[in-house]
Request: fold
Amino acid sequence: IISMTTLAGAAFLYIPDAAKKDRVNDLTNTAKVIESYYELSFHQWELSLLSLGNRFVEIEDPQERLDYANRAIEVYENELLAFGQSKPQGTVITFTGRPVNDSLPHLGTSKKTRRSVESALRKKGLTLGECYYFENVSDWILPIRVPIRDENGEVVAVNTSAIDYSGMMDELGQFVAGTEYQIHLINNEFNTTQILYPMDKEKYDGILGADDLTYTQLDTLGVEGDAFVMTAIHPFSQEDVICASILIDNVDHSLIVSIQKSALIYEVLNRFKFVFIVYLLLVIASVLLYKYLKRNLNRLLSRVKVFCMISWISHDSSMASPARLK
Reply:
Protein backbone atom coordinates (compact mmCIF):
# COMPACT_ATOMS: atom_id res chain seq x y z
CA ILE A 1 0.00 0.00 0.00
CA ILE A 2 2.86 2.36 0.82
CA SER A 3 4.44 1.63 -2.59
CA MET A 4 1.13 2.19 -4.39
CA THR A 5 0.56 5.42 -2.50
CA THR A 6 4.02 6.62 -3.52
CA LEU A 7 3.35 5.74 -7.18
CA ALA A 8 -0.05 7.45 -7.09
CA GLY A 9 1.52 10.57 -5.61
CA ALA A 10 4.12 10.61 -8.37
CA ALA A 11 1.36 10.22 -10.98
CA PHE A 12 -0.57 13.15 -9.48
CA LEU A 13 2.55 15.31 -9.78
CA TYR A 14 3.17 14.18 -13.38
CA ILE A 15 -0.38 14.49 -14.74
CA PRO A 16 -0.73 18.33 -15.03
CA ASP A 17 2.48 18.75 -17.05
CA ALA A 18 1.73 15.70 -19.19
CA ALA A 19 -1.81 16.90 -19.96
CA LYS A 20 -0.55 20.38 -20.88
CA LYS A 21 2.19 18.95 -23.10
CA ASP A 22 -0.27 16.64 -24.88
CA ARG A 23 -2.70 19.52 -25.45
CA VAL A 24 0.03 21.84 -26.74
CA ASN A 25 1.26 19.19 -29.18
CA ASP A 26 -2.26 18.53 -30.44
CA LEU A 27 -3.06 22.24 -30.84
CA THR A 28 0.20 22.76 -32.71
CA ASN A 29 -0.32 19.80 -35.03
CA THR A 30 -3.89 20.88 -35.78
CA ALA A 31 -2.73 24.43 -36.59
CA LYS A 32 0.02 23.11 -38.88
CA VAL A 33 -2.36 20.82 -40.77
CA ILE A 34 -4.91 23.60 -41.36
CA GLU A 35 -2.17 26.10 -42.29
CA SER A 36 -0.67 23.70 -44.85
CA TYR A 37 -4.08 22.96 -46.34
CA TYR A 38 -5.05 26.62 -46.78
CA GLU A 39 -1.62 27.72 -47.93
CA LEU A 40 -1.89 25.17 -50.74
CA SER A 41 -5.53 26.10 -51.48
CA PHE A 42 -4.72 29.83 -51.62
CA HIS A 43 -1.81 29.15 -53.96
CA GLN A 44 -4.00 27.12 -56.30
CA TRP A 45 -6.68 29.83 -56.32
CA GLU A 46 -4.00 32.43 -57.02
CA LEU A 47 -2.80 30.52 -60.08
CA SER A 48 -6.38 30.08 -61.29
CA LEU A 49 -7.19 33.78 -60.92
CA LEU A 50 -3.96 34.79 -62.66
CA SER A 51 -4.65 32.49 -65.59
CA LEU A 52 -8.25 33.65 -65.93
CA GLY A 53 -7.33 37.30 -65.44
CA ASN A 54 -4.71 37.25 -68.16
CA ARG A 55 -7.22 35.60 -70.48
CA PHE A 56 -9.90 38.19 -69.59
CA VAL A 57 -7.51 41.00 -70.51
CA GLU A 58 -6.87 39.43 -73.91
CA ILE A 59 -10.61 39.23 -74.72
CA GLU A 60 -11.83 42.60 -75.90
CA ASP A 61 -15.50 41.78 -76.51
CA PRO A 62 -17.44 42.14 -73.19
CA GLN A 63 -19.95 39.41 -74.01
CA GLU A 64 -17.26 36.96 -75.04
CA ARG A 65 -15.36 37.77 -71.85
CA LEU A 66 -18.48 37.16 -69.74
CA ASP A 67 -19.21 33.86 -71.52
CA TYR A 68 -15.67 32.72 -70.82
CA ALA A 69 -16.02 33.67 -67.13
CA ASN A 70 -19.36 31.83 -66.85
CA ARG A 71 -17.83 28.68 -68.30
CA ALA A 72 -14.83 28.96 -65.98
CA ILE A 73 -16.89 29.30 -62.79
CA GLU A 74 -18.61 25.98 -63.51
CA VAL A 75 -15.27 24.27 -62.93
CA TYR A 76 -14.91 25.85 -59.47
CA GLU A 77 -18.57 25.99 -58.41
CA ASN A 78 -17.95 23.79 -55.35
CA GLU A 79 -15.22 26.12 -54.05
CA LEU A 80 -15.71 29.63 -55.46
CA LEU A 81 -18.91 31.61 -55.88
CA ALA A 82 -18.12 33.88 -58.81
CA PHE A 83 -15.44 35.38 -61.03
CA GLY A 84 -15.06 39.04 -61.79
CA GLN A 85 -12.61 41.59 -63.03
CA SER A 86 -12.29 45.25 -62.21
CA LYS A 87 -10.18 48.14 -63.36
CA PRO A 88 -7.40 49.20 -60.97
CA GLN A 89 -9.65 52.03 -59.74
CA GLY A 90 -12.30 49.50 -58.66
CA THR A 91 -14.83 49.69 -61.51
CA VAL A 92 -16.15 46.16 -62.17
CA ILE A 93 -16.16 45.33 -65.89
CA THR A 94 -17.03 41.62 -65.77
CA PHE A 95 -18.94 39.58 -63.21
CA THR A 96 -20.35 36.08 -63.65
CA GLY A 97 -24.12 35.85 -63.58
CA ARG A 98 -24.60 39.54 -64.42
CA PRO A 99 -25.44 40.69 -67.96
CA VAL A 100 -22.91 42.84 -69.81
CA ASN A 101 -25.20 45.89 -69.80
CA ASP A 102 -26.12 45.47 -66.15
CA SER A 103 -25.08 48.10 -63.63
CA LEU A 104 -22.07 46.53 -61.92
CA PRO A 105 -20.82 47.63 -58.50
CA HIS A 106 -17.78 49.78 -57.83
CA LEU A 107 -15.33 48.18 -55.39
CA GLY A 108 -14.39 51.56 -53.95
CA THR A 109 -17.83 52.29 -52.49
CA SER A 110 -17.31 50.39 -49.22
CA LYS A 111 -14.42 50.52 -46.77
CA LYS A 112 -13.78 46.77 -46.83
CA THR A 113 -13.76 46.27 -50.60
CA ARG A 114 -11.83 49.50 -51.20
CA ARG A 115 -8.92 48.70 -48.94
CA SER A 116 -8.70 45.09 -50.13
CA VAL A 117 -8.42 46.32 -53.75
CA GLU A 118 -5.80 48.86 -52.69
CA SER A 119 -3.93 46.03 -50.93
CA ALA A 120 -4.11 43.88 -54.08
CA LEU A 121 -2.57 46.71 -56.14
CA ARG A 122 0.46 46.78 -53.81
CA LYS A 123 1.07 43.03 -53.89
CA LYS A 124 2.18 40.57 -56.52
CA GLY A 125 0.22 37.55 -55.35
CA LEU A 126 -3.14 36.69 -53.81
CA THR A 127 -4.88 39.08 -51.43
CA LEU A 128 -7.61 37.92 -49.07
CA GLY A 129 -10.22 40.62 -48.79
CA GLU A 130 -12.30 41.18 -45.69
CA CYS A 131 -15.45 39.16 -45.03
CA TYR A 132 -18.73 40.87 -45.76
CA TYR A 133 -22.36 39.99 -46.38
CA PHE A 134 -23.08 39.67 -50.11
CA GLU A 135 -26.72 40.20 -51.04
CA ASN A 136 -26.43 38.31 -54.34
CA VAL A 137 -25.80 35.00 -52.55
CA SER A 138 -27.54 35.90 -49.26
CA ASP A 139 -24.49 34.84 -47.32
CA TRP A 140 -21.14 36.00 -46.04
CA ILE A 141 -18.21 35.72 -48.43
CA LEU A 142 -14.44 35.90 -48.24
CA PRO A 143 -13.19 37.74 -51.36
CA ILE A 144 -9.87 36.88 -52.99
CA ARG A 145 -8.09 39.20 -55.43
CA VAL A 146 -5.07 39.01 -57.72
CA PRO A 147 -3.52 41.93 -59.65
CA ILE A 148 -3.10 41.41 -63.40
CA ARG A 149 0.01 43.13 -64.75
CA ASP A 150 1.24 43.92 -68.24
CA GLU A 151 4.72 43.21 -69.59
CA ASN A 152 5.99 46.37 -67.89
CA GLY A 153 4.73 45.26 -64.48
CA GLU A 154 1.90 47.81 -64.40
CA VAL A 155 -1.45 46.73 -62.96
CA VAL A 156 -4.05 46.72 -65.72
CA ALA A 157 -6.85 44.93 -63.84
CA VAL A 158 -7.74 43.12 -60.63
CA ASN A 159 -9.19 39.66 -60.93
CA THR A 160 -11.50 38.72 -58.09
CA SER A 161 -13.53 35.84 -56.74
CA ALA A 162 -15.16 34.82 -53.48
CA ILE A 163 -14.90 31.78 -51.26
CA ASP A 164 -18.13 30.24 -50.05
CA TYR A 165 -18.09 31.10 -46.36
CA SER A 166 -20.56 28.44 -45.27
CA GLY A 167 -18.53 25.87 -47.16
CA MET A 168 -15.35 26.99 -45.41
CA MET A 169 -17.01 26.68 -42.01
CA ASP A 170 -18.20 23.14 -42.80
CA GLU A 171 -14.72 22.30 -44.04
CA LEU A 172 -13.06 23.54 -40.86
CA GLY A 173 -15.42 21.40 -38.81
CA GLN A 174 -13.80 18.33 -40.33
CA PHE A 175 -10.38 19.36 -39.01
CA VAL A 176 -11.51 19.73 -35.40
CA ALA A 177 -14.37 17.22 -35.25
CA GLY A 178 -14.78 15.78 -31.76
CA THR A 179 -12.70 18.50 -30.09
CA GLU A 180 -13.41 21.73 -28.23
CA TYR A 181 -11.03 23.70 -30.42
CA GLN A 182 -11.78 27.11 -31.87
CA ILE A 183 -10.23 28.28 -35.14
CA HIS A 184 -9.56 31.98 -35.66
CA LEU A 185 -8.24 33.44 -38.94
CA ILE A 186 -7.02 37.04 -38.61
CA ASN A 187 -6.12 39.49 -41.36
CA ASN A 188 -2.77 40.84 -40.15
CA GLU A 189 -2.81 43.90 -42.40
CA PHE A 190 -6.10 45.21 -41.05
CA ASN A 191 -6.21 43.20 -37.78
CA THR A 192 -9.73 41.94 -38.48
CA THR A 193 -11.46 38.59 -38.08
CA GLN A 194 -11.93 36.56 -41.24
CA ILE A 195 -13.07 33.27 -39.74
CA LEU A 196 -14.12 32.22 -36.27
CA TYR A 197 -15.18 28.60 -35.97
CA PRO A 198 -17.47 27.52 -34.41
CA MET A 199 -19.71 30.59 -34.34
CA ASP A 200 -23.46 31.13 -34.45
CA LYS A 201 -24.65 32.98 -37.56
CA GLU A 202 -26.42 35.65 -35.53
CA LYS A 203 -23.00 36.72 -34.21
CA TYR A 204 -21.38 37.13 -37.64
CA ASP A 205 -22.22 40.80 -38.02
CA GLY A 206 -20.62 41.77 -34.70
CA ILE A 207 -17.50 39.63 -35.05
CA LEU A 208 -16.51 39.33 -38.71
CA GLY A 209 -14.40 42.32 -39.61
CA ALA A 210 -14.17 43.53 -36.00
CA ASP A 211 -11.12 45.78 -35.65
CA ASP A 212 -8.30 45.90 -33.12
CA LEU A 213 -8.13 42.24 -32.20
CA THR A 214 -5.69 41.48 -29.42
CA TYR A 215 -4.95 38.21 -27.66
CA THR A 216 -3.62 39.45 -24.32
CA GLN A 217 -0.69 37.13 -23.73
CA LEU A 218 -0.41 35.69 -20.23
CA ASP A 219 2.38 33.14 -20.59
CA THR A 220 4.59 31.67 -23.30
CA LEU A 221 4.47 27.89 -23.50
CA GLY A 222 7.05 27.57 -26.24
CA VAL A 223 7.69 27.52 -29.96
CA GLU A 224 6.86 24.34 -31.88
CA GLY A 225 8.37 24.78 -35.34
CA ASP A 226 6.48 27.66 -36.98
CA ALA A 227 3.81 27.73 -34.29
CA PHE A 228 3.93 30.01 -31.25
CA VAL A 229 2.11 28.54 -28.26
CA MET A 230 0.83 30.64 -25.37
CA THR A 231 -1.85 31.17 -22.79
CA ALA A 232 -3.88 34.31 -23.45
CA ILE A 233 -7.16 36.13 -22.92
CA HIS A 234 -9.48 35.63 -25.89
CA PRO A 235 -10.47 38.97 -27.53
CA PHE A 236 -14.18 38.07 -27.77
CA SER A 237 -15.02 35.71 -24.91
CA GLN A 238 -12.46 37.27 -22.51
CA GLU A 239 -11.75 33.76 -21.25
CA ASP A 240 -8.34 32.26 -20.58
CA VAL A 241 -7.30 30.08 -23.50
CA ILE A 242 -4.35 27.99 -24.59
CA CYS A 243 -3.60 28.69 -28.23
CA ALA A 244 -1.21 27.89 -31.05
CA SER A 245 -0.64 30.71 -33.54
CA ILE A 246 0.90 30.17 -36.97
CA LEU A 247 1.43 32.51 -39.92
CA ILE A 248 0.01 31.75 -43.37
CA ASP A 249 2.78 33.50 -45.24
CA ASN A 250 1.37 33.76 -48.73
CA VAL A 251 -1.67 35.79 -47.60
CA ASP A 252 -0.29 37.48 -44.45
CA HIS A 253 -2.91 35.99 -42.13
CA SER A 254 -2.54 34.46 -38.69
CA LEU A 255 -4.24 31.18 -37.89
CA ILE A 256 -4.96 30.60 -34.21
CA VAL A 257 -6.25 27.31 -32.82
CA SER A 258 -7.30 27.57 -29.20
CA ILE A 259 -9.05 25.78 -26.37
CA GLN A 260 -10.42 27.16 -23.12
CA LYS A 261 -8.04 26.69 -20.22
CA SER A 262 -10.96 25.36 -18.19
CA ALA A 263 -11.15 22.42 -20.62
CA LEU A 264 -7.54 21.56 -19.78
CA ILE A 265 -8.31 21.73 -16.07
CA TYR A 266 -11.29 19.42 -16.65
CA GLU A 267 -9.01 17.01 -18.53
CA VAL A 268 -6.47 17.03 -15.68
CA LEU A 269 -9.24 16.34 -13.15
CA ASN A 270 -10.45 13.41 -15.26
CA ARG A 271 -6.93 11.98 -15.30
CA PHE A 272 -6.70 12.49 -11.54
CA LYS A 273 -10.03 10.71 -11.17
CA PHE A 274 -8.82 7.78 -13.27
CA VAL A 275 -5.59 7.41 -11.28
CA PHE A 276 -7.48 7.71 -7.98
CA ILE A 277 -10.01 5.05 -9.01
CA VAL A 278 -7.21 2.69 -10.08
CA TYR A 279 -5.36 3.41 -6.84
CA LEU A 280 -8.51 2.82 -4.78
CA LEU A 281 -9.25 -0.46 -6.56
CA LEU A 282 -5.68 -1.64 -6.01
CA VAL A 283 -5.85 -0.73 -2.32
CA ILE A 284 -9.16 -2.57 -1.93
CA ALA A 285 -7.75 -5.56 -3.82
CA SER A 286 -4.65 -5.48 -1.61
CA VAL A 287 -6.73 -5.37 1.59
CA LEU A 288 -8.95 -8.23 0.39
CA LEU A 289 -5.89 -10.23 -0.63
CA TYR A 290 -4.28 -9.56 2.75
CA LYS A 291 -7.42 -10.73 4.57
CA TYR A 292 -7.65 -13.78 2.34
CA LEU A 293 -4.02 -14.72 2.91
CA LYS A 294 -4.29 -14.03 6.63
CA ARG A 295 -7.39 -16.20 6.92
CA ASN A 296 -5.75 -19.04 5.01
CA LEU A 297 -2.57 -18.65 7.03
CA ASN A 298 -4.56 -18.89 10.29
CA ARG A 299 -6.26 -22.02 9.00
CA LEU A 300 -2.92 -23.50 8.06
CA LEU A 301 -1.44 -22.63 11.45
CA SER A 302 -4.46 -24.20 13.15
CA ARG A 303 -4.01 -27.39 11.15
CA VAL A 304 -0.30 -27.45 11.92
CA LYS A 305 -1.06 -26.94 15.60
CA VAL A 306 -3.60 -29.79 15.59
CA PHE A 307 -1.18 -32.01 13.69
CA CYS A 308 1.57 -31.24 16.19
CA MET A 309 -0.74 -32.04 19.12
CA ILE A 310 -1.80 -35.32 17.55
CA SER A 311 1.79 -36.18 16.85
CA TRP A 312 2.77 -35.35 20.44
CA ILE A 313 -0.09 -37.41 21.90
CA SER A 314 0.76 -40.34 19.65
CA HIS A 315 4.39 -40.12 20.65
CA ASP A 316 3.53 -39.87 24.33
CA SER A 317 1.17 -42.88 24.11
CA SER A 318 3.77 -45.03 22.44
CA MET A 319 6.25 -44.23 25.18
CA ALA A 320 3.79 -45.38 27.88
CA SER A 321 2.70 -48.72 26.29
CA PRO A 322 3.21 -52.11 28.23
CA ALA A 323 5.62 -53.36 25.64
CA ARG A 324 7.95 -50.54 26.44
CA LEU A 325 7.53 -51.01 30.26
CA LYS A 326 8.79 -54.63 30.11
Notes: The longest strand covers residues 139-149. The two ends are 63 Å apart (CA to CA). The chain is about 50% helix and 25% strand. The mean pLDDT is 80.
